[in-house]
Amino acid sequence: MAGNGGEEGLPRAASSSSGAVARVRARGDPLLIVCRCFSVITSLTAILCICVNVLSAVRSFKDGSDIFDGIFRCYAVAIALFVVVAETEWGFIMKFCKILEYWAGRGMLQIFVAVMTRAFPNESSSQKDLVLLQNIASYMLLACGLIYIISGILCIGFLKRARQKKEVSREQAIKDLEPPRTFRAKHSRDLAILLAKSAT
């Protein structure tokens, strides 16, 4: 009886510890989830700006109507690509561009791209669809930039970075709590042997 109780206690303890780890993993920080969703929206908006500026540049170079507008659009594409990369928060970029860690700086860059996308619209009847796309993309990115600036002033970016550090340390703690695979395999094998012996 005592042996059975001991054997039953082992899987219970293992399952309770794994259940605790699963519960800790299941919990996600709501602020970080909202920030990630907003970052995805901003990236998609910047990609829309890239597409619009590429189309405008192609039309400018193809028609030969305004070469300078085409060059201007190429610069807009390059800076919009930088906005998309900044939203990934890639460590290499953040290391060399510290200002993008701060949301106010990131928001100003997005507003600059939005203004570049909206600048010099061609009001000809053949390009009204492109002008409409320019307006949509620029105003959406302008809204994202304003939200970033307001959030930066309210120190939400600082709070997000603090929560990220906390989440990373929590994930590291969870990894440290988990037994290695070799230990789990040995524990399962020993448990199977004990159960086989008790059955005989």
Automatic annotation (TrEMBL):
InterPro entries: Golgi_TVP15. Its main location: membrane. GO terms for cellular component: membrane. Pfam families: COPI_assoc. The chain crosses the membrane at residues 33-58, 70-87, 99-116, 136-159. The keyword Magnesium does not apply. It is found in: Membrane. It is a multi-pass membrane protein. This is Golgi apparatus membrane protein TVP15. It comes from Vitis rotundifolia (Muscadine grape). The lineage of its organism: Eukaryota, Viridiplantae, Streptophyta, Embryophyta, Tracheophyta.
